[in-house]
Design goal:
Layout (H helix, E strand, L loop, with lengths): L1 H25 L3 E3 L2 H11 L6 E2 L14 H9 L2 E4 L9 H6 L5 E4 L7 E3 L22 E3 L54 H18 L4 H26 L6 E6 L3 H6 L3 E7 L8 H14 L3 E4 L6 H7 L5 E4 L13 H17 L2
Parallel strand pairs: 1-2, 1-3, 3-4, 7-8, 7-9, 9-10
Antiparallel strand pairs: 5-6
Helix pairs in contact: 2-5, 2-6, 5-6, 6-10
Length: 357
């Protein structure tokens, strides 16, 4: 009897392994644009499949060029998760050409996403503080509202030079899942994942999209999403406690990538060296930022690993400000589900370490 029971257990285990392998083989092919999005989607797909990541390592979506392997991955994809054309401009034409094969989900356009308008200039003016957060644009909770973004606020977002001109010449975009007829992509700050509430929304959107594309594994996707959201909630509470002692300390960042993080944790970012990391800031901008450091007593100036640090050294030289490094995309963190919490902790640790000492 025991021998039969053991044999039955082995057969059951083998069947489960075959079923698991079959489910994995049937999982849709998924492509993600940048590391934080890949991490959140990976958490939802855990145990079922693994999404492809396009922008790897320390590469920047602002300057990325497609490789042949990227084109092949897009050509085979059923789902593509990206922020939107203002951030990943390199994907706009390939996705349009591939529209009949893959469902491209622009996360910037998903209902329930909190969006912030791009900030003007590199030294954020006192009137930008009027909404109760330091130096932030206006927040919008997306529920399908139309015409909520205003062109006059577009200057602080990527894809624009210091005068607010669009580098990419974007018109209205016809990608899947936009859902907002008059939505102004170019006016919005695109670094949405740095708000933990948005990260949870990305997880929920990914789970539903995957469940729709792969009903056989829908329960697994939704269970993974629930676990990921709980993990982000716990992480958020941890970071709020860590950052509270330095919330009022003014600081300067390399480029305006941290507005969602600053807003969520009520931090006091007062300026960016450059609005668009693809363009070197003017001498006037550098003078403005140095004056801002002196005027507000900025405690720290933060570089980024993806870009040349010489400008940060120039800005901080001769001022009392210390230098640190912030990374909004996790350049040096291994890809996968654990990248997102590590990324958020690393930013908090860097801020606390520089501002708190």
């Amino acid at each position: 009897m025991r021998r039969n029971t053991a044999r039955l257990s082995l057969i059951t285990a083998a069947l489960l392994t075959v079923a698991s392998t079959a489910a994995r083989a049937e999982a849709p092919r998924v492509v993600t644009s940048i590391k934080p999005v890949h991490s959140l989607v990976s958490a939802v797909m855990k145990g079922v499949g693994e999404p492809v990541l396009l922008v790897r390592g320390a590469a920047s979506p602002h300057t990325y060029s497609m490789k042949p392997s990227d084109a092949r991955a897009l050509g085979n994809a059923a789902l593509v998760f990206w922020v939107g054309p203002t951030l990943e401009g390199f994907l706009e034409k390939p996705l349009a050409a591939n529209a009949g094969k893959a469902r491209a989900i622009a996360l910037l356009d998903q209902p329930g996403m909190t969006l912030l308008e791009g900030r003007k200039g590199g030294a954020w003016e006192p009137h930008d503080h009027a909404d109760g957060h330091h130096g932030h644009g206006h927040a919008h909770k997306e529920h399908g509202h139309k015409e909520h973004a205003h062109k006059e606020h577009a200057h602080g977002n990527h894809g624009h030079d210091d005068h607010g001109h669009d580098d990419h010449g974007h018109d209205d975009h016809g990608h899947d899942d936009h859902g907002h007829d008059d939505h102004d992509h170019d006016a919005m700050d695109t670094h949405i994942w740095l708000d933990p509430d948005n990260a949870k929304r990305i997880v929920a959107v990914a789970a539903e999209a995957l469940a729709g594309a792969d009903p056989a594994n829908a329960a697994a996707y939704r269970a993974n999403a629930a676990a990921a959201e709980a993990r982000i909630t716990a992480l958020d509470a941890e970071l709020k406690e860590l950052l509270a002692p330095v919330a009022k300390k003014p600081f300067i960042v390399f480029h305006d990538a941290y507005q969602y993080y600053e807003t969520h944790y009520a931090l006091n970012g007062v300026g960016a060296i450059t609005v668009n990391p693809e363009r070197r800031p003017s001498a006037k901008r550098l003078t403005e930022i140095r004056a801002r450091i002196t005027e507000l007593g900025a405690a720290c100036v933060f570089a980024e690993p993806q870009f040349e640090p010489a400008l940060v050294n120039t800005i901080a030289e001769g001022t009392p400000a210390k230098k640190g490094v912030l990374d909004p995309e996790g350049a040096d963190i291994p890809d996968g589900p654990d990248l997102y919490p590590a990324l958020m902790r690393n930013i908090a640790t860097a801020l606390k370490g520089c501002l708190g000492s």
